[in-house]
Amino acid sequence: MIQQTIQQYLIQYKKCPLPAIGTLELVEGNASAWHAEKIIKAPVPFLLFSHRESDPSELIAFIADQEQITREDAAVKLQGYCARLNGLQHEAEETWPSLGTFFVDAQGKLSFKQAQLPTHFFPDLSADRLVRADAIHQMTVGDTETNSEEMAAYFEEQSVRKPDRWWVWAILWLGLAASLAGFYFYQHGTASMFGKTGKPVLKETWKTYRVPQ
Asked: I want to staple 88 with a disulfide (CB 3.0 to 4.6 A). Which of 51, 92, 100, 124 is the partner?
């Protein structure tokens, strides 16, 4: 009877102090998404046993209320049950139906092994991802939290502000042409392009005419 009452308290309040033994806690698990299989695994709770003791006063009050006895008698029953657990010998066990088993390990320390919970209590869910074109989705860009609407506005603004840089290339080509022209004039001078500027040298020609008398 006392064992069932303690189990009921654990399930209802998620934590069960066991004087001179430790504490059992019912910890909620986390759901996990399997995108490739398109399913979501249900969160599976697990029992965590530690040798850290906690205040049993609320459990004693619960036992007294459930079994209609005084708190003093409830404290005595709880201490007696915990003493029985502490007195387990090697290979001896104390089973809590559907929850697990207390046992003594090879080092002589009292331990708890959780029972395998029935999988039909935690069915998988189908998880087909639905993306709407007009929906706003939260996302992380670098270290910044943002959403799809803000990112769309950002890229639209960038495309509008994109400058026309044809004139930059024009200046670069003009500078290159000026550099090549300067190098050419330095090597050959300006006369080779615009004609000779020096005094012409006249050569004597054959006389093919006569001056009239």
From this structure: 92
Integer CA distances (angstroms), 190 to 145, 169, 183, 184, 197, in order: 66, 28, 11, 9, 9
CA angle 192, 193, 196 (to 5 degrees): 55
- Angle of helix 71-86 relative to helix 2-13, nearest 10 degrees? 100
State phi, psi for 169 to the nearest 5 degrees: -65, -35
C-beta of residue 49 within 8 angstroms of C-beta of residue 38 = no
Q: Give the three-class secondary structure for 59.
A: helix
Coil, strand or helix at 144:
strand
Stated length of the chain:
213
Under 8 Å between Cβ of 140 and 146: yes
Q: Write phi, then psi, for 20 (nearest 5 degrees).
A: 70, 5
Q: Is the pTM of this model over 0.85?
A: no
Q: Which amino acid is at 182?
A: G
Number of H helices, E strands in the chain: 6, 11
Local mean pLDDT, 10-residue blocks, the chain (213 residues): 91 92 86 68 79 94 95 95 91 88 90 77 61 58 65 61 60 74 65 54 57 58
What is the C-alpha to C-alpha distance for residues 10 and 63, in angstroms, rounded to an integer? Answer: 12
